[in-house]
Amino acid sequence: MAKTTKRKKKQTYGCDNCYEKGYILEKQGRYATAKVCQCLNCEECSGTGKKLYYKDNGYSYIQPCDLCGILHKNIKLYNLAGIPAKYYNVNEVSTFHPRHDTHQNALIYVKQFVDQYPYKPGFLLMGASGLGKTHLAICAISELTLERGIKCLFTDFFDLLNDLKSAYSEGRPENQVIFPLVEAEVLVIDELGKGRANEWELSVLDQLISKRYNSSKSTIITTNFVTKEVNAKLNRDNKEILEYRIGERITSRLFEMCSFIYLEGRDFRRMSAAN
Ligand SMILES: [Zn+2]
Ligand SMILES: [Zn+2]
């Protein structure tokens, strides 16, 4: 059989349905998912993303398609990131609309984080619920997976605690739960501090954060709690202090890994419900 020669040409795709991106985002069960847009009409691989190559000795091997293999790989990464279904249309930083100066500053940081990845530290967004903290975190990982091919993972802190509780009661090692979280190049922990963690769970969180710190991996956090310093300025109840929820040790480690950004403002969802 004739040897396939690799032709160097650029696959073009893009239509109004996919905003010239080549992928479509949708909801599937609990998660947001991506799929190849039907405008991708790759003549090299018939749109499968894989191609059979032949060696001179007659053996064949399968490799990603030269032309659209990266698009397929990035879509797969997005589908493995565990992004909640309700954020399926949040695929890039431009989908966030700031409603306050502090939101604008947060947006600028997130944009720089994505553009300069992996050279800018991760970030921790703190402030009331309903200000778009999770939205911003998901903008970052959606863009990093779909446009840059970076392995990212989203986890909800409350779900993480539940997974740890199940592992503990089933006698499984906690490493099984935290391994994928340690391994991801960029990890989002959403709603840090939500739900009361016991001492053992906090020690597992400490391990997770330390391992990511030691391997210089970027971590993105959102939390409705604020640091002592911010709380002192706000003159609020101590119940809302991050250090009291997750401990001084983990908080100070996060200070070393992340830029802390406070988003001001009231919950816009509640305000519009009241109006
Ligand atoms: Zn299209
Ligand atoms: Zn192809």
Task: Explain what the structure shows.
The protein has 275 residues and is α/β, with parallel strands linked by helices. It folds into 2 domains: 23-80, no CATH class; 90-274, P-loop containing nucleotide triphosphate hydrolases (Rossmann fold), CATH 3.40.50. The chain has 10 helices and 9 strands. The chain has helices at residues 69-80, 101-116, 133-148, 157-170, 174-183, 199-214, 228-234, 242-246, 248-257, 268-274, and strands at residues 23-28, 31-36, 50-54, 60-64, 122-126, 152-156, 186-190, 218-223, 258-262. The strands form 3 sheets. Strands 6-7-8-5-9 form a 5-stranded parallel beta sheet, with helices on both faces. It has a two-stranded antiparallel ribbon with strand order 1-2. One zinc ion binds at residues 42, 44-45, 49, 65, 67-68.
Write a concise synopsis of the structure shown.
The chain has 275 residues and is an alpha/beta fold. Helix content is 41%, strand content 17%.
What is the name of the CATH architecture of the largest domain?
Answer: 3-Layer(aba) Sandwich
Radius of gyration: 22 Å
Strand order of the largest sheet: 6-7-8-5-9
Write down how many β-strands occur, each being a DSSP E stretch of 2 or more residues.
Answer: 9
Q: Biggest sheet, open or closed, and with what strands and sense?
A: 5 strands, parallel
Query: What percent of the residues sit in helical stretches (DSSP H or I)?
Result: 40-55%
Q: Any idea how many domains? A: 2
Shape: globular
**CATH topology tier name of the largest domain:** Rossmann fold
Mean pLDDT: 90
Q: Show unreliable segments.
A: 1-8
* Main CATH class of the largest domain: Alpha Beta
